[in-house]
Structure formats: structure tokens, C-alpha cells
Amino acid sequence: MKIMKLLVFGIIISILSISSLADQNLVERKARLNIYTTDNENEFVAQLYAKPVNMKDINGEFRPYEEVTKFYEDNDELVLEWNNKSVKLKIYTIDDNKKFLKSLSQEEKNNLKFKTKIKKERGSYYYTHNLSKSKQPEAVGYDVVTENVDCIKRGFDLICGEQRISFNDAVYLQNLTVNLSDDKVEFSGDDLSYIDPSVDLDIDDISETTGYVKRRHTDNYYYGYYTETGFKVGHDYSGSKYCRGYMNWSLDDINTSWEITDVKLTWNDYKEEGTEDTVKFYKMVQTDLSDWTPSDQQGREDLYDAIGDSTNYYTDSSPDEDEYNVAELGSSAASQMNSDKSNGYGFYIGVKGGEGNEETRVGIDIKDPSYPAYLNLTYVFADLTPPNTTANATSPPNGSGYAFGNATAEYVGITFSCTDNGGPGNASGCDTTYYCTDTNNTCTPDSVYSSQFTIYSHGTTYLRFHSEDIKGNDETVQNKIVIIDRSPNVSSMMVLPLNPTAGDDLFCNYSFSSPGSYNEKDSTYDWKKNGVSQGINSQVIRKENLTIGDNWSCEFTPSNGLANGTKGISPNVTILGTIKNPKIYVGSTLVWNSSGYYSDEEMITGFADEINSEIIDCIPDAEGYCNISITFSSEDSGKLNISEVSTYHRSRRETLNVTSIKLIHSDGTDHIFEIVVENDGDITLDNISWAFDTDDGTMIYSDQNMALQPGEDVFVYLRHNYSLAGDLDVTLNVTSGNISASRTEEVHIGDLMITNFSEIHQNGTLSVFEFYIQNTGSSNLTGINWSLDTGDAVINSNELIDLTANEAAMVYVEYNYTQYGTFTAEASSTDGFYYDSKSITVDALLVDTSDLSLLHNASTHNVFFFKITNKYQAALSDINWTFDTDDGVVISANQLFNLTPDEEIFVMLEHNFSSSGSYNVNATAIYDGFEDWSNYTFTIS
Predict the structure, then answer these.
(1) Which residues contact 328 (CB under 8 A, 6 or more apart)?
(2) CB of 843 closer than 8 Å to CB of 817
(3) Are the beta carbons of 337 and 265 closer than 8 angstroms?
(4) Shortest CA distance to 941 belongs to which of 919, 918, 916?
(5) Sign of CA dihedral 931, 936, 939, 940
């Protein structure tokens, strides 16, 4: 009785040989599948393997084996790492005793000539040990040290979790003895000069067998599967054995939307014997998966006969041995696979060889990691998806982006872009885009889009569009809204002056704005007297048209020459009575007069000579006083307000002033002072001398006298080396005859100084301070502390500072004041012996006055603008403002107002100046005693 041995086999997948598909064409890698692009942009090739070539990473995702796994040499030890696991192979040699390679002396290593080379392949690593044959040890081995994984012995493999370290070549090809256990591997033999192990993914899995061998010996049928390199097909004449087999692939990774157009099988013929080496590949279809594992004799016969009974996909009459052969399975196999991928079956190929009377055998390689059998599936995607059209707009055309549905004052340029997502790499492509425009969103898109077009119409325009692809898939109509609004706006309508008299011209005042910054053009006015239009299209009504008691208002329709805005209407003003042909006399002399009605505000000067003349001619009374009459007259009744009558005279003054004493340099106790002395009187002073008290027992005197003209100043620089440290008061006394002045300043003497103390940023109550702490001495200072008294709170340093000689540290502190007003902030530092401090004045703002400007100028008649902003983090109420005209008139708000945080109010006012000249006007915002102001200087010619 003959016994057939059936051996279980596994598949080791390692590096792949891809001749026609380059790595740069790779678009996706899965456990059993690589997808490549081809020269046809709508076509892909899927390279399908029976076993995985990728490895799961720590996140449970399949990644290329070489991305997850690292295998490297570390100090004469081999380290295998993946995810959170590692295996370390600690290399040693054995002669008389065991020595680890990394402990060998350099001379021993040189004599041994031990060298390891690691080669990285796709899905595996190969490494070799080379050493001197003449001086080889008795044995070479590893101690196996693991982390988060266990290794077990399986044949001549070491299986460590997902990884396999194979020593089969050492046994079968190099005739070495391998002593293998779970934690040790040793090689011994006649020639240890070359040892070639390998590392790859452990994928031996009987449940996913790649191929089976079916044998018929005389009348008996056998069933089994091989664990060797593959299976044989054909006729073994000496034993009257006929062999057939099949190969199968899981289609779990095949997308059901793929349209497979061609199938190729790449296989390796590892053994040929006899004269007949033809191999044929057949279609095999079984709906019951249990049919592939027959349990009785009849089942074996049926399965054997099924191989070769169906369609012959391909016949190879002369396959090449030990290299890849390609079986063109063609469209018939593609059709079968399109069915199999949908019904969930695997894909099976029956294989048979020549079965004549000669001994003929062909070997199908299914295990060699260098030559795994795989399928090349060519496929495309069916395009069943409509394209998508994107509308883009710019305003003005080719300018900045325009958001549909928003208003713009410019023309809008429209472009379309079409994207066809019919399938990855297989979209048929966009064909035509259609569009139309109307004002009610009902038009049918029938205009063919070719390039950018422009929408010009003022108002709302609807844009409707859709696209078709080459396969005729039609997109649902989309729509967008374009709004072009060029209408200008008017605000702050008022008639100026607010309380006019019969002597004033009326001015229609307003603020004009236009989208797109178009200038005002073709605006119209309509003046109404007592509610009736006067048909006057002018911004100004001359005072000749006014009558006391009439009510006037102005209506204004803004225009920018392109579109009209909404009409603005001012409040009514009532014409008040006023004086006519006013005159001013000093005594009997006319010193000023004006013709016609008069309602201006004017500073009247220039009659000093007339007053002096009256003084000269006057006869004093018993007490020595003279009465000088100033007479005001008018030819019509009205109210004349005289805000101020004043005279002034100049007297000659003799005075000195010490403007400042500054410490401009210090180095330890060595200090240099800058002192400024000014003659701020009206008379030249001669013989000016000074004396400087250093407050440490030393007086420094000037060595020559000085002379200063009125308004002239002189800078004095002096140097003193102090004999002590601390806070001292220095004093400068300056004299010229009976005139004297003095100034005292506090200075700090020592190696530690505060410099550059300033407020570098301020916004409302938020202030940012900067100051330097400087070691001005020649030795190091340690343990320096600092503090900042903001005037509202004290902030201390959170760590001490050390400074070398002449080194400085910069300190920045941000503080948000809880109160408002003016505060004195003081920065100080000390190391326990030296101390210094500096102070500055800061404001915590509540209200901010800004943008003071001149809006309108017509000789002495001027209109001003300024803005008041709440800079506090809470709402403010009862805010007031004043406006100093620098013309003897101060204008105040006629009512208090409130502002929320960051809210602004805009103020416009007018004033008729009394004469030409240069004026410095001042706008001041006032809240609870806190003030902020802004100045503006201009000239009336």
C-alpha cells in the first residue's frame, strides 16, 4: 500500500517585481492590493495578491510593511521594531566561552572580520553576516530579548507576533546547524563565513490557502494542499500520477463599482521535468464553498474533473523556468471576476499540465517570497454622476472676490468652473456649461458659457446655470444672486447755523457717502419755507431771502451721477431777529462797523491807539481814574452779546529759571549731570553764576560768569564721584545780582539703576509699561527684585534677577486699570543693598477725542468735525464736550449723551471767525471730571 503525504503550506509575500508599473504611479496600498494609474487617465491596474504584503500599524490601519517595521543594527546588536513591540538579537560568538560581539576588543573584531549588511525590501528585510572563514568561532548566536511581544520556535523560524525571522536558508542552502529556541539562536558548521537570514511578515494561514493539488493515482483520487514552494501539475509517468490544482484569491478589497476589463496572472514556474511542459489555466465556478474541500471519494473525483472542464482562459506551451510568466486570462476572466466581486465569491483558476504518456511536470510557485503569484486587474469606473459647476465672481471684473448675495457698487465679472466626479480617474469630463440671467429667477439656461462675462445692471440680477458631462449626465440648475447697488447715502442733515438770524446765510449741511467711493455728482436741493417748496436748487440760501419768524428746511437728494439715493430732510430752523449796520465807538471815534444784518461772532481788536489817545486826553477824577467810553450801536433792534472786553499791557521782567536737572550717566558712584538754566524774563542778564550742592558734603561752583538774552538758555554739565550710596537731594542755585533761582532733584546713588521707564502702549484703561534694570557697576549683582506701583495696584516680580557688570534686564508689564484718571506709576528695584526707582505719569482713558478736522471753509465761516469714543469697558453716561474756537468763543454741547464700550459719536459745528489769522481750535470730551482733547491749527487768509 502506497501512502501519499499531504503537507500544509503557507504563503510568504515579500518584494515584488513590477516591470510595467512604476512606484510613482501607485495611488493606493491595501493589505492584498496595490492600485496603479496607467497612461490612460481613465484606467487603473489593481495588483492583487493572495496574502497580505502590508502590515497593520498601531492604529489598526494597513500600512506598507517597511513604514511600520524598522530593522537596524545598534552597537553590534540587531533590533526589530514595530508598533510598540521590539525584538533585540544580541550577537555573540562561542570558542572556549561565550562572548558578546559588542564586548570584543577591536583587535578581536578585526581578526574576526565580522560585518552585518541589512537590505530593505518591500515586505521584508534580508541581512547577512560575513566573517573570516579561517578564524571563525565554533558558533555564532543571538540572545533574543523581547518587549511587549513573545517569540516562539516554529521549524527553523522564530515567530514574534506578526513578524517572522527565518533561518531556513542557513539550514537548507548553507548546510549549517541551527539550534533554535524561543529565546536563543545558534549557528554552527564547517563554514560560518556567510549566514543569510531574513525578516518578513508572518502570513502562514491555512484558512486562506492559495492553491490546492488534486492527484489521481490509477483509480484513486486524492485531495490535499502543499506547504512546499508550490504545487505541480501534469503527469508523473513512473507513478501513473496525474496532478491538477487550482489557485484562489479573495476579492474583499475589490470595489463593486469597478468595471474590470482585463485580467493577467503572473506566476513562476519553479520546476520543469519531461518533454511536455504545457500548462493551461481554466475558468472555475463553484457557488457552494464546501465543494472546494471534498469529504468523500465522489467529491474528490468531481473536483478533479472540474479542473479543465470549463473555459480555457490561457495556454502557455513553453513557460520559462525560475522567472515570472504571464498568463493573459483576458476578457472572459474579467467577466467572471465582475460577477464574483458582486456575489461575494472568491476568484478561482484551475491549472492542469500536459497529461500524455511522457513524464511531464510543471511547478506552480506560490510560496517563494521573491516570486509570489499575483493578478493584474485592469479596470475603469463607469461615469454615472452629473458634473458640478462652481460660479465665481469678482468686482470689479478681474478685481477682488465678490460674495454672491452681497451688494457692490462695481460691475461684477462671472466665471464658471466645471468638475466631473464620475469616478476616481474615470470621469468622462465636463462638456458644456449653460447659463442665463434675469430679475425674477425663472429664465432657462440656454446660453453656452465660453469665457468671463460681466453683469452691469443696477439692482438685483439672478444667475442660473448648469453643466453636462460627455456622458450626458445633466446637473440640476443652480442659481446665484448678484446685487449691484450704486445708490449713495446721506446722513446728519441739518441747516447751519442751528439758530440763524436774518443776518445769516443758510447752509444745507450733510454727510455724503457712496458705495464704491464714487464722488458726489448731480445731487439736488429743495429749500422749503414754512413747509412750501421755494424751487431753489442750491446748497446756500443768501440772507437777502430771509425774513424774521419764517421756518426753513432743506431737502437733499444725493447722487453720484450713476444712481440717486434716498432723499434726506433736515429739521426746521426759525429765523431770528438781529442787529443791522452795527458800529463801535471809542469815545467819539468810530473804530469798527459792518454793513447789513449782522449775526456773526467776531473778535474785534486793533483799536489800542484810540484807547491810548483817550487815556492821554482824559482828566482823572479825585481818585485818579478816567472813564473811557466804548459805545455799540445798531440801526435795527436785536440782541448784541459782548462776551469779553479786556485790555492788557506789558511790563519788563527780570527772572531766572532752572529748567531741569537730569542724571545722564552713572557708573557706580560716578555720575554726570545735565542742568539747564534759562533767562525767562524780558531783560538781558549779566554776571550769572551758579553753585551745585551734591548732598554728600561737596559744593561745586561755576568758574566763570555767564550772560543770557531774554528767552536764551544754557546747558551746564558737571561730574561728581560720590563717596556714599543712597537717595540724595542735589540742588542748583543760580544768581545774577538780586535775581536768583534754584531747583532740587532727588537722585539715587549706587550700582543698580532703573532706566527707560515709559508707557509703550495705552488703549483705554489698558497700559503696557517698559523699564530696564541696569547694573552700572563693575561687579556682578545677584538676587535683584523689582516692583511696579501702577498708582492703582502694586505688581511684584515672581523671580529674582542676576546681572553681570554693565548688564541690563528689560521688564514689560501689562496692567488694566480698575479706575480712570491720571496716575503716578513708579518702578523700583533692589538687591538688598542698592536701590533705585523712577516715576512717570499715565492716564487711564475713558473717552477719546480724535479726528478733529475742518469740513468746510468759506473765508471766516468754517465748519468743524471731531469724534468722541468710549474707550472704557463699560457704558458711560452724561458725557459732555466743549469746543474752544481760539476766537474768544467756547461752544458747548447742548445736551449730554451716553456711549456703550467702543461706541463713537460724531460732532459737527460751525463758527464765523471775527477776522483773518492763524487759529488753534481745541475739542475736549468730558466725563465725570476726566477730559481728553485734540487740537487743530489752520489759517484764514
Answers:
(1) 264, 314
(2) no
(3) no
(4) 916
(5) negative
Segment-wise mean pLDDT, segments of 10 residues, the chain, 941 residues: 25 34 74 84 84 82 87 93 95 91 88 90 86 91 96 91 89 89 93 90 54 53 54 68 80 84 88 71 73 73 81 88 88 90 82 71 67 85 84 90 90 94 71 96 96 91 94 91 91 91 89 85 94 94 88 94 90 86 88 81 82 82 82 79 70 80 73 89 88 91 90 90 79 91 84 86 86 86 93 92 91 88 88 82 85 89 92 87 94 92 91 92 89 90 83
pTM reported for the whole predicted model: 0.40
Separation CA 129–CA 383 (nearest Å): 55
Calpha distance 318→304 (Å, rounded): 24
Does residue 681 contact residue 654 with C-beta atoms inside 8 Å? yes
Burial of 195: CB neighbours in 10 Å, binned 0-12, 13-18, 19+: buried
Q: What cell numbers appear for 102 in the block?
A: 559588542
Would you say 584 and 610 are in contact if contact means Cβ atoms under 8 Å apart?
Answer: no
Question: E-assigned strands of 149-188?
Answer: 151-154, 157-160, 163-166, 177-180, 184-188
Q: How far is CA 411 from CA 449, 456, 516, 517, 732, in A?
A: 19, 5, 10, 14, 74
Cβ contact 913:866 at 8 Å: no
Widest distance between CA atoms in the chain: 169
Q: What is the rounded distance in angstroms from the CA atom of residue 266 to the CA atom of residue 327?
A: 6
CA torsion 813-814-818-823 (nearest 10°) is: 50
